Amino acid sequence: MKKVHLGMLLLLLLFVSIGSGCIGGQQTVTVTQTQTQVQTQTQTKTETKIQEKIFIRFAGWSAGETEMKNYEKIISEFEEKYPNIKVKYEVIPQMFHENILASFGAGVAPDVFYVDSSWAPIFIEKGALHPISEFASKDFINQFYPFLLKPFEKNGKLYGLPKDWSMLALFYNKKLFEKAGLTKPPETWDELLEYAKIITEKTGVPGLAIYLGGFNRYVPVAVSNGAPRPWFEKPEDASWFDNPIVKETLKWYIDLYRIGHVQMVKEGKKPYVVQPSDVGAGWLGDAFGQQKVAMVISGNWMIPFLADQFPNFKYGEDWDIAPLPAGKAGRVTMAYTVILGINSKSKHVKEAWEFVKFVVGPEGQKELVVKAGHTLPSIKGFENDPDLWPQHKKTLSFIPMYNDLIVFLWGPKSGILENKFSDAMASAMRGEITVDEAIEIMKQVVKEELGG
Amino acid sequence: MHFSFSSIYEKTKTKELIAGLALVSVAVLLNMVFGYFAMAFAFYLSFFKWDYIGSMKFVGLSNYKIVFEDIIRGIHGAPYLLSPFYTGLKNILIYTAIVVPIQTFLAIVLAAFANQKIKGQQFFKVSYFLPATTSSVIVALIFVWLFMRNGFINYILTHFIPGFQPIDWLNNRNYLLLAIAMVAIWGTSGHFMVSFLAAMQAIPKEIYEAAMLDGAGPIKRFFYITIPMLKPMITYVVVMGLIGALQMFDLAWVMAGANGGPGGAGYTVALDIYNEAFTRIRPGVAAAKSWVLFAIIFTTTYIFQRKYGRAVR
C-alpha cells in the first residue's frame, strides 16, 4: 500500500513542479536559474578564479532577415574578441518601445536596446538610460554628426550614440514614368499629386502610396510650406494646429487619400492614391518593389529591402531616387535615428558599453551599415567610402538642396503623440471625420498628454 | 529515525483532507497569483499615475475621473477617438445584445437535436463542438478571409439572393460588429450545447413518459418540459455568455485591428484597456477602466442571477 501512496505523491509533486514551472514562465528559465545557483554555490565553496561568463541581453526590432543575420554575425565577432561576455539577441517585431517600457515595469528590461529619437525623452526623463558620456571619450563622440546627437542630450549629458540614420526621399518607378510620358520626378507637392493622377490615368497603376495616418510623413509638407517646426512641450503648444498653413497643408495631405482613394472608389473610378494594404502589400517598400505603385516617400531602410527581395527590379534602370518635392518655402525632409541605449538598471553597464562601442563605432558601422547597405552611417567620413552603396550616396547628395532636416522629435512625448495624431489622421483620411474635427482631436490630445 | 513525507501522510487521520488540499493546491495557487492578486494589484494601481519606468505617483480618483469624463463626452456625441471607452462600451453592449440570446437559443436547439436517438448523432455532436476547441485567433483569421469583399460569404449571398450587392463586411462600419458577432455565435454555440446536453440527459424519463400518456406531442414536450427543466442551466449559460461577451478582445483584435477598424466600429472595452496600458502608457487609467468594466459585468450578472437564478425545486 505504501508504494502506491508514494507513487501518487510523486505524481502530485510532478504536477506541482509543472505548475510552478508555468508560473515561472518557461521551464528552461528555471533550469538556467538552478544552474547559475549551482555555479555560484560551487564558486563560494572552492573560490576558484574562473572568470564567470557575463550575459548581456540586447533587444532590437527587425528590418528584415538580412539585418538580423548581420547582427548575429557582429555579435559572434564581438564574443570572439571578448570571450567573457555573451550577448543574447532578442527581436521584438511589433510595438517595440511600448514593449520595452512594459518590461521595465516587470523588471525584466534588456541591458541594451534600441531607442528611437521620438521616444528618447521619455526614457531619458525617467532615468531609464545610462549616460554614455561617462564612458565615451570626447574624440569618440566627436566622430558622430552633431544634429543626430541632439535628441539624446539632456543637462549636458549624452544618453546614447546613434547606430545609423535615414532620411526621407522620393522613390519613383522609372518604367511607369516613361509609360505615362513623364521624364523627370515631381519638383513640388502639387506636381506630385498631378503626376499621381497622370500615371494612374495612363498606366492603370496607382500613382502614389502613403500610410493611413503617419503624422511624421506629413510634417515635411507643412514645414516646407512655411509652417514652424512642430514642438509640443506644454498644453498651449496645441496652437501649432491653429496656424493657417498647418490647416491648409493638413487638408491637402488628408485629401490625398480621402479624395484620391475613398471618393474615387465611391464614384467607381480608379484610385490614384493607395495605402499598402489596398494593393495587398505589407508596407510601402513592399508595394513599390512589387511595382504596384509608381511613387512612395520612404527612408533609406527601403534600399536594402528592395535589393534583397526584388533583385530584378534594378536601381537606375527600373527605379530611381529624388529629393522630396518642394513647398512654397523650400525643401524639407525628415531624419530618423536610433541609438543603442544602455539600461541604467543593468548589472553589467560596463560590458554593455563595450558592446555598444563595438557596434556603433567605426568598425561596426562599416560592417553593419556601410557594407550591408543598411542605412546611412551616423559617423562622419564615410561619405566617399567605396563600400557605400550608390543609392545611399545619392540620398546624401540631396542634403544641400534641403532648407531643413527635421529629426523625428516633437517634444517630450513624441512617440505617444505620434500614435494618437496618426489615429486621428487615419480616421479623417477614411472620411469618418472632417479635417477640422481631426485638428480638434489632435489639439485635445496635446492638451491631455501634456497637461500635468 | 526514518522520516519521510509518506510516513506522516500515513499517520494523519485526515487523509482525505490532505490529499484533497494537495490536489487543488496548484489550481488555487494559480488562481491566487493570476486571479486575485492581479485584481487587487489593479485596484491599487488604479489610484496611481505610472509609466512603468519611474515611481508611482498617488493621484486619488483622477484616473476614474478620466474614465467618467470619457463616458460623458461620448454621451454628448464626441468623435470616437476622444471617447474611446464610451465607444467600446456602446459597441460591446450592442454585441452582447446580439450574441448572448442567439447563442443560448442555438445551443438549446443543437442540444435537442443531439439528444435524439438518430443515426450519426455522434458526428453532429463532434462537429458542433469543434469550433469551441479551435483557437479563437485562428477562427477569426479564417473568417476575415471568408468575410472579404470578394470572399466566400459574399459569393454565396450573391448567388442565392437575387440582386444582392456584395458587402465589404470588414471595412464598412455598419457591418463590422455584426460580422464579429456572427463569428462569436458560430464559435460558442457548440460549446454551450454540451452544457445543455448534460442538463437534458439529467431530466428524468418518467416526466416525458407521463406527458406522452397525456397526449403531449414532441413540440409541446419541448416547450413545457425541457425548457422549464433547463432553467438553471439557461441561467448559467446566459451568465457565462454575458461575462464572455462583455470582455471580448481576441475577435475584435484580429478582425477589426487594435484601433477598432473603420470609425471604431469594432472597438471594445477590452481593446481600450489594452491600448491604454500599452500604447498610451497609462497603466493606472487602464486599471481604472478594467475595474469599471468589472463593476458593469458584476452588476449585470448579479441582477440576472437574482431575477432568474433561483433553481426550480
TrEMBL record, chain A:
A Pfam family of this chain: SBP_bac_1
Xref: CDD domains: PBP2_UgpB
UniProt superkingdom: Archaea
Gene3D superfamilies: Periplasmic binding protein-like II
Protein name: MalE-like maltose/maltodextrin ABC transporter
Organism encoding this protein: Pyrococcus kukulkanii
